[in-house]
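ok so I'm stuck.
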Amino acid sequence: MDAEMYAQEAVRTPLHTAAALPLESNPPQQPHQLPFICTGDPNCTRSYEKKHELNRHMRKHSKPCACTVENCTARFADKKGLDRHKATHGIGRDEFDCPGCTETFTRADNLYRHRQKQHQFMG
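replied:
not stuck anymore, here's the structure
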């Protein structure tokens, strides 16, 4: 079949999408279909195929990593989140100075966003 005939056939052939199928063949997804079910929050409907996936998810509910800065009650699911938060206290990270003005940031991603918005930076 050449390209022109193929294009004509594609126009005549209806699309078969999930939306075009009858409703009974496309049932809504049921929560808790997998064997490892989250019990960390009554509103959470997550379930996982593997136990280690559930364990990783449960840390989001328990937030075992606590900030040790005085009067700070922030808690995080993992060390990466805690380290990122500590930078807001000026702990463990350098400051990032904007080369286009006098602004200073505790996180590189905030400097990057600032440069894009304020200095039309496209890097």
